[in-house]
From TrEMBL:
Cofactor note: Binds 1 FAD per subunit.
Signal peptide region: none
Listed name of the protein: Dihydrolipoyl dehydrogenase
Record-linked Gene3D superfamilies: 3.30.390.30, FAD/NAD(P)-binding domain
Name of the coding gene: lpdA
One example of a Gene Ontology biological process annotation: 2-oxoglutarate metabolic process
Amino acids binding NAD(+): G187, A188, G189, V190, I191, G192, L193, E194, E210, G277
DNA-binding found in the keyword field: no
């Protein structure tokens, strides 16, 4: 029986970060991965690299370049005639990007001395890990420490069962061989909006069906309203408060039935994407006597430092509580490896950045106005619209705004919310400042390059105190 200091189940962002960091710290480390790619070879990187963050961004970027060539170049005096999209070529490029990055993880494993093991891992009692190979053979590993990073999978809904042909999940939506004339998207969350915007830019008539009555309820309300306005202007038909009740398929069409709160409505589509969220991949992951416990939703129960109820067994990433975000899992993986080594790092769960990679991007970190109101925390707000940014105007990309919220008494920054070009990258500036307890005055005193989009961050911070230069300041209460 092979024995390791650390055995990691799963090679997604949380898992491969844990494995590489553990190896860097001198531990003998193995990482188990059971997923395979289109070529039936082991595929490292989990959902993010294979069927999530990376391939979706490849399609988002391609579709936006196509949209710009067709619709945006004229504003710059550029004439582009006969612009067409080659969908198979777009999908091939996406697959090449995925192959390069997943292969890169294999290279990083070798460079750091991590043993990659093919198969499906299952935790047994006594910190033993059973590995079932593709041929059905079984191997058992023994470990001083186990890190469970099994990830998540798309949620299915009975009224619209996925067949990966006409009704697809977020994985199937990455592999269309042509542009659907009419596309239905069930779910107006991050995944639904990103995938819907890809195919909308390429020419699909997109209808987004959302059961909740509010659009992006997790987003600051002002930013959410702006996002809804922008996406509708782009052509996304977003229908809120609509609960899907059934579906019928023919050889080429899908008919979805939903209730809009008053009536049953039928809509027919060429393809339908089910994007109603993700659930932990915890089925057949744990033996009954392993000692690790699940909560009522199937997440592994852990403490603030990702330790389970069994000493020496940890769980990280989508399989545990908190937002299902790759970067959150990455930080947890590193934290756990370092805690195994006797160090005392922690993850600051109050400052987990969130991003919707549409165009414009939507990004936020910290608290929003609605949360602060509910907690009765006094606050002030500074907003800077990109229409007042010289760099944004020069790029013909001036939609959106930067919004910074700070404590009314201490001026400490409590949240930042951005909709606009490069929102994700701009947000990180504020996340760093918040990690160090910065005030809005601190940000406003920093010299920013000119002309840049990031000046919007400085101006929003100045606006909070009524000191903005490039917009009229609101009168202080």
């Amino acid at each position: 029986m092979a024995k390791y200091d650390v055995v990691v189940i799963g090679s997604g962002p949380a898992g491969y970060h844990a494995a590489i960091r553990a190896a860097q710290l001198g531990f003998s480390t193995a990482c188990i991965e059971g997923d395979k790619n289109k070529a039936d070879k082991p595929s490292f990187g989990g959902t993010c690299l294979n069927v999530g963050c990376i391939p979706s961004k490849a399609l988002l970027d391609t579709s936006y370049k196509y949209h710009e060539a067709k619709e945006g170049f004229a504003a710059h005096g550029i004439t582009a005639k006969g612009v067409e999209i080659d969908v198979p070529a777009m999908i091939k490029r996406k697959d090449q990007v995925v192959a390069q990055l997943t292969g890169g993880i294999g290279g990083l494993f070798k460079a750091n001395g991590v043993t990659a093991i093919e198969g499906v891992g299952k935790l047994l009692a006594g910190k033993k890990v059973e590995v079932t190979k593709a041929d059905g053979s079984v191997e058992t590993l023994e470990a001083e420490n186990v890190v469970i990073a099994a990830g998540s999978q798309p949620v299915d809904i009975p009224p619209a069962p996925v067949d990966q042909n006409l009704i697809v999940d977020s994985t199937g939506a990455l592999d269309f061989d042509s542009v659907p004339k009419r596309l239905g998207v069930i779910g107006a969350g991050v995944i639904g909006l990103e995938l819907g915007s890809v195919w909308s830019r390429l020419g699909s008539e997109v209808v987004v069906i959302e059961a909740l009555p509010d659009f992006l309820p997790m987003v600051d309300k002002q930013i959410g309203k702006e996002a809804a306005k922008v996406f509708k202007k782009q052509g996304l038909d977003i229908r809120l408060g609509c609960r899907v009740t059934g579906s019928k398929t023919t050889k080429t069409k899908v008919t979805i039935t939903y209730n809009d709160g008053e009536n049953d409505v039928e809509e027919t589509f060429d393809k339908v994407i089910v994007a109603v969220g993700r659930k932990p991949r915890s089925t057949n992951l744990l033996s009954e006597d392993c000692g690790v416990n699940l909560d009522e939703r199937g997440f592994i129960f852990v403490d603030d430092h990702c330790a389970t109820d069994v000493s020496g067994v940890y769980a990280v990433g989508d399989i545990v509580r908190g937002p299902m975000l790759a970067h959150k899992g990455m930080e947890e993986g590193v934290m756990v490896a370092e805690r195994i080594a006797g160090q005392k790092p922690s993850v600051n769960y109050d400052l987990v950045p969130s991003v919707i990679y549409t165009h414009p991007e939507v990004a936020w970190v910290g608290q929003n106005e609605e949360q602060l109101k509910s907690e009765r925390i006094p606050y002030e707000v500074g907003v800077f619209p990109f229409v007042a940014s010289g760099r944004a105007l020069a790029a013909n990309d001036s939609g959106g705004m930067v919004k910074i919220i700070a404590h009314a008494e201490t001026d400490r920054v409590l949240g930042c919310h951005i909709i606009g070009a490069s929102a994700a990258d701009l947000l990180q500036e504020v996340a760093i400042a918040m990690e160090f307890g910065a005030s809005s005055e601190d940000i406003g005193m920093i010299m920013f390059g000119h002309p840049t989009l990031s000046e919007g961050v400085k101006e929003a911070a100045l606006a909070l105190r009524g000191h903005a230069i490039h917009i009229p300041n609101r009168k202080k209460r």
